[in-house]
Amino acid sequence: NGTEQQVVTFEYGSIPFNAVLLLDASTSMAGERLSAAVEAADNFARKQQPLDQTKLLVFADRLIHETPFTNLPAILTLGLGGIEARGGSAVSDALALGCARLERERGRRVLVLLSDGLDVDSVLDLDRVRTTARRAQAVVYWLRTGSAVADDAAYVTLWRQPEANARIPRGISDLVEESGGRTLEVAYLLALPRLASAASPDAVS
Fold first, then answer.
1. Which residues does residue 110 pair with via DSSP β-bridges, in sequence order?
2. pTM of the predicted structure, to 2 decimals
3. Using one digit for the tens of pLDDT, what is the confidence trace for 1-54?
């Protein structure tokens, strides 16, 4: 927040972390996008190290499914098989919720968003989300599945005008960059599981 901080320790090593996986199951994710995202979440869960903890949040225009923080892949993936793409999307609200969940946890914090970035139902703006992310000190990764709607497409939603909607994908990318994470554009949906491995415990630092 613009205040210089003194570095107390700086070291390299395999440090356990707490992660939140945000999986977008809205209508715009139907078909291959959702299938690939589910497979990526499953892959991420199975790449955990013994002391890592992960929580899965599945969302559309509301929270659909939530697991506790756990190291057991069977618990994380239990609800993935029956997920269907339906409803609107509230990506900003889901990001804020994920960061809030992480804020309560100790140690290294990571948030991974599996989404096309299309947001039509969020109440919170990205400035509020950015504040929550800073407070949680979470590194944010966006595995972007691609979208049928261009970033600068003009569309009106219940809460926002077209200009505000067009800023959302750019705002998510800015949030990711500020946190020290990465946005990974998925040109081929079948590559998504491999990209999830790239953001898995062994690769996140």
1. 19, 139
2. 0.81
3. 788 877 766 666 667 789 999 999 999 898 888 888 888 888 888 888 888 999
